[in-house]
Amino acid sequence: MSTLLVAEDVAVFSSHLLVHPASLTLQAGRPFTILGETGSGKSLLAQAIMGTLPRGLRAEGRVTVGDQRLDLASGQGHRALWGRTLGVLPQEPWLALDPTMRARKQVEEGYRLVRGLPAVQSRIRASADLAALGLGNAGDKLPSELSGGMAQRVAFIAARAGGARIVIADEPTKGLDVFRRDEVIALLLKEIEDGGGLLTITHDLELARQMGGDIAVVLEGQIIEQGPAADVLGAPRHDYTKRLIAADPSAWPERNAAPKRSAGVKPVLTAAGLAKTRGGQLLFENRDLTVLPGEIVGITGPSGCGKSTFGDILLDLVTPDAGTVTRAEGVARVRFQKLYQDPPAAFPQKVPIRRALNDLVRLHGLDGSRIAPLLERLRLSPGLLDRLPTQVSGGELQRFALLRVLLLDPVFLFADEPTSRLDLITQQETVELLAEVARERNCAVLIVSHDAELIRKMSDRQIAFGSPPDAAALAA
Amino acid sequence: MFGKAASILSVSVGALVIALGVSGPVRAASGAEVFNVVAPFEVKSMEPSTSGDVFLRTGVAETLVDVDENGKPLPALAERWEVSDDGKVWRFFVLPGVVFHDGSNLTAESITHALNVALARSGGLLAKAPIESIAPEGETVVVTLKQPFAPLLAFLAHNTTQILAPASYAADDTVVKVIGTGPFSLGAFEPPLKFSVERFDGYWGEKPAIAKANYLAAGRGETRALLAESGDADYVLNLDPASRVRLEKGDKVDVLSIAIPRTVLLKVNAGHPALKDVATRQALSAAIDREGIATAILRLPDAGATQLFPPSVGTWHNKSIAPLAYDIDKAKALLAEAGWTPGNDGVLERDGTRFAVTLTTYPDRPELPLIAAALQEQLREVGIAATINSTNSSEIPAKHQDGTLELGLVARNFALVPDPIGTILQDYPPQGGDWGALNWSNAEFNAAIDALSRTADASEGQVLRDKAVSILQAELPVIPVAWYQQTAAVSKKVEGARLDPFERSFGLAKVRKAP
Amino acid sequence: MAADLSLPLVAERSFWSTQRIIGVALLAAIVAFAFVTPFVFDGSPTRQSLRNVLGAPTVLEPLGYDHLGRSMLARMSAALRLSLGLAFLSVITAAVPGIALGILAAWKGGWTDRLISLVADAFLALPGLLLVLMFIAIVQDAPWALYVGISLVLWIEYFRLTRSITRALVLSPAVQASQLLGFGPLYIVRRHIWPEIAPLVLTVGAFGAASAIAAIAALSFVSVGVRPPTPELGLMMTELLPYYHEAPHALLQPVVAVFLLILSLNLIAGSNSR
Amino acid sequence: MSNHFIPPVVRTVILPRLAQAVMVALLVGVLTFILVRSLPGDMAYRIAAGRYGYDMVDTAAADAVRRELGLEQPALTALGSWLWDILRLDFGNSLISGAPVIKEIVHQFGATVELSLAAVLLSLLIGPPLGVLAGLRPGGWLDRVLLVVSSGLRSLPAFVLGLLLIILLAREFGWFPAAGHGSASNLALPALTLALGLAAVSARVARDAMLGVAQSPYYAFGRTKGLSERQVFARHGMRNVAVPIVTYLGVQFVYLIEGVVVVESLFAWPGIGHALVHAIFARDVPMIQGTALVMGLMFVVLNTGVDLACRWLDPRVARA
């Protein structure tokens, strides 16, 4: 196989060294995946190779593409390659499409302006590409009318329309649920079959495993392990890689049997005959549920199947079309709480965490001294209290959300995809912590996630929700 | 790299230049034949009662009687006139061979119709003359009065009494088309700011040199001055003081100025507890620095008024009486003598009432609020607290009626009717006049004025006039502050332009314009 | 320990960018000139000396005389005090109802929202000038009436801005979480909505103040505005206009004062300035 | 009425704007009515002053006007009759000139619309292009200069700016007539005075919009697709910048009317703003109500235009 791209000692600096010198070779027809957690510098490495580093950062090292040698320090020469040989599938494709332009036209411009084809022919090529990926009737739609998966496919076609054979895919599965991953993999592998090159940047271990080809693991700006996927994932040498692999829910130990519930104990909450339709689409109907104190119930299903709405109904945040929800008497409403999917969005943006917690203590007349031990229990350093929510990592903020809820001695906690935005290792810790704390305080938990494996390993019993609405579209 | 952005800029700037350029240097048609006049008076409608002055000035319409520079009546549409010995019946002989702009002949019937409409129209000046009836008799127009009234000729020279053809009037006597007898006929009429006039070849008098004239009303003094300097206007009437000084220094235009019988005066409510005694009014007058106001605001050092009428009015200017002078000590002495003692905040008090008055004026004449501000300060110097209320000009007559006016700063035009007696009769009748005396009456003065209105004898009239003026100077029902000058800027290409002291004509008929 | 500890507290683009420092310094200088001069310089804004009308600046009178021989230095500081104070008043009388109605409309939604928006649009469609002219014609002699009249038009900007921000916030998980935790609407406004709106109040306020002064100047030009001899920037521009040739220094002072005011407020408002 | 019979354009733009127009008509009618009734000063005197000028106004003239116009009509019936007249599109006659209000307005309204449109077009030619260029290079010399110049233009009242332009372009260079109305060259200076005032603000809006667009993900994706900088700007920059600029135009009309009144009286332009100020002074009620109503409706029409432009520019709005 011919080598398409060779990167030698590529490093990235701001005022100090961010990414240590790294080298990699991209073969035609063989994917190369860079695996690492958020903030580990993997994106910077890819941007350095592509020449799209943000203002204020500079790169060093050499990149050879075909017969062209580029000296990264000079920062010249990249522009000519963009679109013609090097293509980028951006991180959140639904933002990378021009909001006011129809999908087909955004693909057409690659053919017409970059390859210089006449208008009519560009139009035909664009329509053909869209149809090939099941987007035949999406040509006239605006980006705001496309689902996440469809937008990604349009962006992929648009990136290659200019003739680029080497594609750099930046976090292709971010913000998409598990069911979409297989679609994304199929999409990317299609690039390989045509003899093109693929450099994927991801924190998703499963995606790396299924892509195969070569893998490089990055930790704090340094490649700590590199080689064929089978060796790196099969027999990891570096202990960080081992912990990373162990953190995947599929590698979690099987749960021991659910603790025996003494019969006749009063349930925390019972729901009968719940039904809800949204946007003309029936989500679920005559659903019943009884939750006992301290019990962990899991709900799984593809995104858009209404599992979050179901949880919201239980907390009276959404009114059901039919059915009733009855809560245990004598329990304050405030003790039914919720954990959110995107931790920073669940806190007032401009208020330091300490003041938010003090407000809560003052409101309910709680005992302020309970905060310190809780910080200890949730492994949170007190120094973080004086920061704004946006200045704290996702994992820590979710633990602060847990602390905020625990102050109210909850009896029922609805966790709506609590860890989908977190990295693998953080996800594992957060989930274990949640389970331990809930069991200690005999607090019932309803956890919702699209990751069936995580739900199976964590909850006492599971409920599956309906088929995904646009799964049908995939089949077409 | 930003080729595209740069090309956008060049396109937009280009478009901007074209948009301005295409309409660029083609200037308003200003050949030798067209004469551009600019003045501050807006044209409200075709009615003589609201816009008659503008049609008279541009020579579209004419009156029965005309006036020479010092106000003596001259024959116009009335060739000559006779008075009955009891002074109550006037007979005017119609000038033969005069044609209206629509070709119809000027007849006694058409004159009486125009005069009767003016008599009935509210706001017209004619209604103030004691007229019994106006009727045609063959080739003459007979006006019968309730009592002898010497200034009748002056009243018939006023612009609201202009003579329009019968075809100008609709059924209900509202004017729908201005068909006059003047040297120019009305062309395009675009109220409120513009109209044009063309030379009328059938004119009975001397044909004008220019063929067409455009009239533009421009409210702002600065705009008028710049129109003159930029050559867009050949004749600009009424310059604000600052612009006049600038134009006089510059060499782009000639500046004409002439004294006119208009006086800025303080209308005093002689019934007001603080202002009822003459000594206080004398003190008020002595506290006014007229020379300072004239130089600082009007920019005319000798515009300070020593008495009610300026020298240019001749007969009404009495040289023998003592001029009003600026003397702060005398003012303070007079006030003390009148029983005023300064309160703790410096404002004078007398048996419990503070000397605080409201000075009402109006911004229609831009210099009035400025003079009011100067007066406010000068009165404060002698312990009188005046607050300025610059509002609508109709507040002066309105507050006169309900007696709430205390001090009013007004610019009174005594040339409304070419003979000042017309305005004097209006402003200083025994019971006081809207723009004249308030709660003030003097038997001797009333007798003199009444006699003056009846007699036609010049020398006897002069004695009566001098007596009347000296009484006004002594009792000061109104305190004169400054006299006015009418100004105009004329383009260098214009010959024969002059200023009419009685503001009845722009002189368009006698003007020539070099190409 | 978890790998993704928070990054060291990297200063988010600091509030005190150079642009903002210059702006605050300029504004401080203007306010100082307005409020300190009376103590340093004992000239009165109304005492006239008709002898040295439109006099050029001298040592005694650093800013020269106006068209009635009054000290420009005294008048300018008095005018700035009045204009700054009244511009602030007009911004407040616009901000308070604007923001309150904005939050109410976004919070309640439905009919309340549609009704208030319709009224706001109608107000916007009404020529602002007519409102101000009418308002002044009634209240006659009070500069504050002018500024309140102007705020009748200004409140709409506040209303629209607040409504769009609050509408996005009300649906956000943060507000839902606070409600679940038992917090009342007042807390939500104080902690969630107000911090987002505060910087915009400054931006819109900055331009509100500038357009208030410009409106006064326009009104004084058609002899409606503030009543002489009150020293007010807009009125001074109109009064000194005829003397633009003889004494340009006099006319330029109020214009430069407003220019510095707008420039400083622009700089403070920062990049998202309007 | 179910929605799919009415085309979306009408439903989302035209109907609400019509409702607003009716709202404006009512608000103007009632507001001017209440305000004029409560204005100090006797109406008859004010109208007499308006008609005959300060030299000729006196009690006799005021009483004659009071009799002629029958001003003693009780308030509510007067309001009722005015609203009824409006429905029949009879605006009544001006108390000052006696001419039908509608005829006066048509003449003067035409002049103001001519001036406003020229000013807005000119401002769009000056402001946004400069703003976009400054936005493309934030912090560059053009950006800084634009900040200072636009602050300067915003601080210069319209009459000072107008005067400067007359002195420069009319007196010194003699390119345009100093004032007056009629030929196209008269339009140049008043429109330029207004346009510079509007451009000062629209330049800032354009700059901020361009800054936002240039830093957006779709702009970067355009580059990495292989498009040249010019192509990215033309295909993705222009339209996305135009949306906020056009939306802001709607707000700017509020400040336009102030400028129009000043520019009309400075340049002796027979516009409606000028007429409104005189009408308020002279308490010419039918004229006030007629002018205010027409100006209000002009606003509604202009804003409708802005809405339609937004729909055309930004398809997302159309699909909402």
TrEMBL record, chain A:
Q: Does the keyword Cell membrane apply?
A: yes
Q: Which UniProt keywords apply?
A: ATP-binding, Cell membrane, Membrane, Nucleotide-binding, Transport
> Does the record's keyword annotation contain Nucleotide-binding?
yes
Question: Cellular location of this protein?
Answer: Cell inner membrane
Can you provide one Gene Ontology molecular function annotated for this UniProt record? ATP hydrolysis activity
GO cellular component terms given for this protein: plasma membrane
InterPro entries per the record? AAA+_ATPase (IPR003593), ABC_Ni/Peptide_Import (IPR050388), ABC_transporter-like_ATP-bd (IPR003439), ABC_transporter-like_CS (IPR017871), P-loop_NTPase (IPR027417)
Record's bilayer topology term: Peripheral membrane protein
Q: Which residues form the ABC transporter domain?
A: 4-245, 269-474
Family according to the record: Belongs to the ABC transporter superfamily.
Task: Name it.
Answer: Peptide/nickel transport system ATP-binding protein
State the organism named in the record.
Pseudochelatococcus contaminans
TrEMBL record, chain B:
One biological process term from GO is: peptide transport
Compartments, as annotated in UniProt: Periplasm
Superkingdom, taxonomy of origin: Bacteria
Report TM segments. none
Question: Which InterPro entries does the UniProt record give?
Answer: Peptide/Ni-bd, SBP_5, SBP_5_dom
| Domain Solute-binding protein family stretches | 73-421
GO molecular function terms noted in the UniProt entry: peptide transmembrane transporter activity
Q: Which PANTHER family match?
A: ABC TRANSPORTER SUBSTRATE-BINDING PROTEIN, PERIPLASMIC BINDING COMPONENT OF ABC TRANSPORTER
The family classification in the record reads: Belongs to the bacterial solute-binding protein 5 family.
Q: What is this protein called?
A: Peptide/nickel transport system substrate-binding protein
From TrEMBL, chain C:
**Family annotation (Gene3D superfamilies):** MetI-like (1.10.3720.10)
Which CDD domains does the record associate with it? TM_PBP2
Q: How does it sit in the membrane?
A: Multi-pass membrane protein
Q: Which domain of life is it from?
A: Bacteria
Query: A GO molecular-function term, please?
Result: dipeptide transmembrane transporter activity
| Family membership | Belongs to the binding-protein-dependent transport system permease family.
The protein, known as: Peptide/nickel transport system permease protein
Automatic annotation (TrEMBL), chain D:
Q: Where in the cell is it found?
A: Cell membrane
Pfam families on file:
BPD_transp_1
Q: Where are the transmembrane segments?
A: 12-36, 115-133, 145-167, 187-206, 245-267, 287-310
ABC transmembrane type-1 domain mapped to chain residues: 109-310
Give the InterPro entries listed for this entry.
MetI-like, MetI-like_sf
Q: Name one GO cellular component term.
A: plasma membrane
- Where does the record locate the signal sequence feature? none
**Is Cell membrane given among the entry's keywords?**
yes
- List the membrane topology term(s): Multi-pass membrane protein
A GO molecular function for this record?
dipeptide transmembrane transporter activity
Tell me which family the UniProt entry assigns to this protein: Belongs to the binding-protein-dependent transport system permease family.
Q: What name does the UniProt record give this protein?
A: Peptide/nickel transport system permease protein
What organism does the UniProt record list as the source?
Pseudochelatococcus contaminans
